[in-house]
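From the pipeline queue, job 12 of 40. The input is one protein chain; the requested action is below.

Action: predict structure.
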Amino acid sequence: MFLKIKNSFDSHCHFLATGQVACSLSLKNLKSANDIQNLVIKDHHFQGEWLTGFGWDQNQWINSEFPTKEILDSAFPTTPVFFSRVDGHASWINTRAIQKLTSLGFDFSQDIRGGKISRDLNGHPTGILFDQAHIQALMKLPSFDGLQTKHFIQTAQSIFNKGGFTHVRDLSMTEPLWKQLTEMSERKELTVHIDGFVTIESLNDLENVFSCIEVMKKNPCNLLKVRGVKLFFDGSLGSHTALLSKPYLGSTELGICSWSLSDVKNIMRATWQKNLEFAVHTIGDEAVHQIVQVARTVSTEGVLGRLNLEHVQLLRPETLQMMKSLHITCHLQPCHWISDHLWLRNVIPQELVAISFPWESLRKNKITIRFGSDSPIEPTSLLLTQQALIESQKLGWSQFQDEWYKYHQHPESNWVNCWTEIADDKIKQVYFNGESLL
């Protein structure tokens, strides 16, 4: 079968992080926490004095409990270690890292809103940080320099091109990244078109985020478009922090909510008033429901705009009905099903499994959807979407009743001359501005 897909589009990714993770110490093949003893460490795995890595997943281990700092201490007693979980929502750190972060001003004595520090029975940190605690700690690590960042960009665009994509939607755009991408575009070094969203971490950052977006608009580039503002509202299923309506199995916990609804409402209203799009990370069914409720409230005040719901891995029928009066696009990642369905039934109640990965329900109810990868959390590839839709149907999820590739096409069909050719279930060639890349 031959397919020609115009302006092939990964609708949800973290562009720079895709390159960073590809160049980092991979932890995806660990079969247990103790396997860290077998890691091959190289110089480029360090950020300053910090050993960093990405990709561990306790759900894939024989013992699915979260690991502890003592295991890292045995292998790295004097080096601060920061190992990010495969979903990017948790980190595993050692005692030296705790000491170093404390000296840099990180407060281990209490949890922050939207974050959690795992503690033992004596109240001491176990070495696992969740969501905002993870993010705040990560921000204290040394920054990469300009040459490293350029290498990450080049690595990322190569990964997306090989995955079949000429267009991506980056949920982690920054002003320095925009500047470097613009310079590369002027030198004809860029081979992707990028829609950018700027992430906001607190209400106090709102004006800075708007200022950042204005700078981007005043420095235009034909390969880049800044679209709006993005925030993380809940966590992830694998870290047990996505916001649910029913507790995680074996627990009374419902997950984490990173924002007050009043703050979300204020940011949504202000963003729409500036004719920008608003994107919200919502994985759990309760997270989706609450954000849709906020959007309906803002809309009844006469302020309208585009709401992008990122992930929507769980969706209640009543929430879906509430969406119909709003301008909503749901950005879904079928490839998450490939990873998550292996352990999903061991983590959340069956009634929530039954409403998971609702791509067909959304399509059937005429809610706009786009497909992406969430790279680097999952590999980016057009073919993985096709695989997930076929295999999920065989295991009881609803069959997707449309051509899958239509949801991987950029909505602006006239944004330059790009296309991808697929034949015999392989990506044969990718054309960017009419020139072949592979």
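Job complete. The mean pLDDT is 96.
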